[in-house]
Design goal:
The chain is 22% helix and 27% strand. The chain is α+β, with helices and mostly antiparallel strands and 259 residues long. The strands form six sheets. The chain has a five-stranded antiparallel beta sheet with strand order 6-7-14-10-11.
């Protein structure tokens, strides 16, 4: 077991002190798997948690495939891609976290998604090809724990793409957040809808929709789960009333009392 203070470990800096089970084998677990906690909002009422041990942090090339352990952080993947001149991993500049979480939510930016070059994933049930997985914009039907994944190898690391992702990251808020709060609806952007609804900079307690980018729910210091939920629910209600659009959450909420 590992003790984590989620109020300091999670990117949004909210959550209780918890005991987290460390998985050192490719076994099935009923616990909720966490990685870098970059898109998670924790209440005080959370399910049992587990995380992958360091033995699942690896990256290597074999049989013309790139093998990456699910506990491998995005920075390590980016460094490997640079060193070996591999394309399709430039977006790691934009995406914090570990591989397992990025695959589970098909993380990405616009047309650049983690699934673009994915070949297969390995879970406690064995290998599963990409063609056997249902996936779309920030969504997959993966329910099992991901331990490893393989990717196509394509030469040509694109430094222009890397610069573009760096610039986009520079335009993001500096305050603690869980990344984009809502998914972009078809043909528009969540940030624009929130801005047009007058919610850019809107604050409840010590939580707010950022003045830099309205789709980032930021912790101004000492923000609480209750304040975050109040903002999320108010924003969904306001955008639905103003534009007839339901904003779907991109961040994941862990609260066993929430329907």
């Amino acid at each position: 077991m590992k003790t984590l203070n989620l109020a300091s470990y999670s990117s949004i800096k909210i959550g209780p002190m918890v005991e987290v089970a460390l998985l050192k084998e490719e076994i099935k677990t009923s616990a909720y798997i966490i990685g870098g906690c970059n898109n998670l909002l924790f209440s005080q009422n959370i399910p049992p948690l587990a995380m992958l041990d360091k033995c699942f942090e690896f990256i290597y090339i074999k049989d013309n495939l790139l093998h990456i352990g699910a506990a491998t952080p995005s920075g390590k993947i980016l460094s490997f891609a640079k060193k070996h001149n591999l394309a399709n991993f430039e977006l790691m500049q934009k995406l914090p976290g570990t591989l397992g979480g990025m695959i589970k939510m098909n993380a990405g930016l616009k047309e650049w998604e983690i699934f673009n070059s994915l070949v297969a994933i390995k879970t406690d049930k064995g290998w599963r090809k990409k063609s056997e997985i249902e996936y779309g914009y920030r969504h997959t039907n993966i329910k099992d724990t991901i331990f490893e994944a393989t990717f196509e190898i394509k030469d040509g690391f694109n430094h222009n793409l890397l610069l573009m992702f760096k610039k986009l990251r520079e335009n993001q808020p500096k305050e603690p957040s869980a990344g984009s709060c809502f998914k972009n609806p078809p043909n528009t952007y969540a940030g624009k809808l929130l801005d047009d609804a007058g919610l850019k900079g809107f604050q409840v307690g010590n939580m707010a929709f950022s003045k830099t980018h309205a789709n980032f729910l930021v912790n101004l210091g000492g923000g609480t789960y209750e304040e975050a939920i109040t903002l999320i629910e108010y924003a969904q209600k306001k955008v639905l009333e103003d534009f007839g659009i339901h904003l779907e959450l991109e961040i994941q909420i862990l609260d066993t009392t929430r329907a």
